[in-house]
Amino acid sequence: MRRAFLWIMIASVVVLPIWVLVGRGLFGAPLAQAIVPLALLAPFLALQIGAVAGLTLARKEVRGPRAVTWHDVRLVGPWLLAIVVLGMLVVDGSGAASGSALTALVGAGALTASAALAGVLGLLVVLAGFVIGYVQVRLLLLETRTRLGAYVDQVAQRPIVASDAVFERPGGPQAGTTIRLERGASD
């Protein structure tokens, strides 16, 4: 399941921004007025999801087994699910014929709730992307510090013994020859 989530997270870099852009149209909501703000939001979400996926994949703990940790599933999973829900809640405009996928499913009575939820959820999704990115950077730095500390400890524990060093007289045609550069009269 953790391995599948890694592939879901990588695929969501492309799929979820497209879903937010056109997903509500699949439920019958009009697409006219909200296309410009969503055309700006979709690439931003793609960058955020890509950064989180890249930072997660950069950790050796994830790269080795090619599976995210349960911590990553608990942290990133709800955020990706919130982006899926956001694609259903984005309201197209304020006219009588406008709405979201939620209003197309539930009815026009949910238009005000859908508009309020879309605004709040959109802000929360973007802010959560920054927080999750920070957490993933922090995890990457902690893992790197731990690995570097283990390497330094391993090197420090290995004693340096003089018998390990080998001193041999150089061989070859110029062995023992010293080249001296002196300033001549022409300088």
Cα shape: elongated
The helix fraction, in percent, is 55-70%
From the alpha-carbon coordinates, what is the Rg to the nearest angstrom? 30 Å
Number of helices: 6
- The total of beta strands comes to 0
Mean pLDDT: 81
Oligomer: single chain
Low-confidence stretches: none
User: What is the SS-derived class?
Assistant: mainly alpha
Tell me the distance between the termini: 77 Å
- How can the largest sheet be summarized? none
* Fraction of residues in β-strands: under 5%
What is the string of SSEs from the N terminus onward? Answer: HHHHHH
What can you tell me about this protein's structure?
The chain is mainly alpha-helical and 187 residues long. The chain has six helices and no strands. It is elongated. The termini are far apart. The mean pLDDT is 81.
Write the layout of secondary structure elements.
Layout: H1 2-22, H2 35-58, H3 60-63, H4 70-89, H5 101-106, H6 111-157
Helix pairs in contact: 1-2, 1-4, 2-6, 4-6
Q: What are the main properties of this structure?
A:
187 residues; mainly alpha; 6 helices; elongated
